[in-house]
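Tip: read the tokens left to right.
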């Protein structure tokens, strides 16, 4: 099955043909978890179903930012030693309604609280399916031993449903908004980066240069590497540098944490025409840019980027 063959490479675009213009055009594959903390709510918020028609006659959009909607799992496959690929289906005449760059929020019941109300675990994920695709979206999720939501996803079987709300806008991307975008991602923090890369490379009128530094524990932990390698080889405006903490003997990329030298050599210099995007685990965020504020605003810029002369208006933290 095409979907299952996809998991071996974890990048093939579902149902979309590869086309070439002045640069490669393609449909994106998947989604992986975003770098946002899990939170809990105690609620029985309204739940709506996708088959409800639009009263105003507008084009059908699957997502609703104010209502939890059930999406059915169509299929899932193992994509790597600790990640799984999930395809969720909905009305084939509707689009998901996802913007670049934005995420969805998922929730799953986790027992009851002291008042007898359902307790939910809530987790954001960033789809990287083609925003124009109809009838499905894909999630590539790293399954953690202690991850309540990722373990819930791993337990799902085809036909089961997940409740979703969104989209939740992060960075409003527009073509050519900057001449050069630098990206620093750690682990599953590749999600919003890939969403923006896809949007840039499939638009022949977008001339944005993109440079990505992608850090992982080991070569086996690099999600979507084959897709990223194909995109970099096919698009001269995309440059990628990988670094890992535990390299294998045949590893040819960087070794260790992202350093000042890697940033200087791999990313655009501080400039009004430069934007640096950062997403990853707390340790990486602290090292590179400082984490967001407690209220999830951008917070103060610190770390390597501050030391190298970047300013707060040149950096966006996912």
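Filled-in amino acids:
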């Amino acid at each position: 099955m095409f979907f299952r063959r996809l998991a071996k490479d974890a990048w093939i675009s579902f149902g979309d043909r590869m086309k070439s213009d002045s640069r490669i055009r393609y449909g994106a594959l998947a989604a992986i978890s975003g770098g946002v903390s899990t939170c809990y709510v105690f609620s029985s918020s309204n739940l709506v179903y996708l088959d409800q028609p639009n009263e105003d006659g507008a084009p059908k959009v699957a997502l609703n930012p104010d209502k939890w909607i059930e999406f059915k799992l169509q299929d899932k496959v193992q994509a790597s030693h600790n990640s799984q690929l999930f395809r969720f289906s909905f009305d084939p005449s509707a689009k998901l309604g996802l913007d670049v760059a934005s995420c969805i929020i998922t929730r799953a019941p986790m027992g009851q609280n002291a008042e007898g109300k359902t307790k939910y675990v809530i987790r954001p994920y960033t789809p990287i399916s083609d925003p124009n695709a109809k009838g499905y979206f894909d999630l590539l999720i790293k399954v953690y031993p202690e991850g309540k939501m990722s373990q819930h996803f791993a337990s799902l079987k085809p036909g089961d449903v997940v409740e979703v709300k969104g989209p939740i806008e992060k960075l409003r991307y527009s073509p050519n908004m900057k001449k050069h975008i630098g990206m620093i991602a750690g682990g599953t923090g590749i999600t919003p980066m890939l969403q923006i890369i896809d949007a840039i490379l499939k638009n022949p009128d977008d001339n944005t240069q993109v440079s990505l530094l992608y850090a992982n524990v080991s070569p086996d932990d690099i999600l979507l590497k084959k897709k990223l390698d194909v995109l970099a080889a096919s698009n001269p405006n995309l440059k990628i540098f990988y670094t890992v903490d535990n390299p294998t003997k045949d590893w040819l990329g960087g070794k260790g944490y992202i350093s000042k030298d890697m940033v200087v050599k791999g990313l655009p210099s501080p400039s009004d025409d430069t934007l640096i995007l950062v997403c990853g685990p707390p340790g990486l965020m602290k090292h590179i840019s400082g984490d967001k504020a407690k209220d999830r605003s951008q917070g103060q810029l610190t770390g390597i980027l501050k030391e190298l002369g970047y300013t707060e208006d040149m950096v966006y933290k996912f």
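The longest strand covers residues 68-80. Residues 289 and 303 are 5 Å apart (CA to CA).
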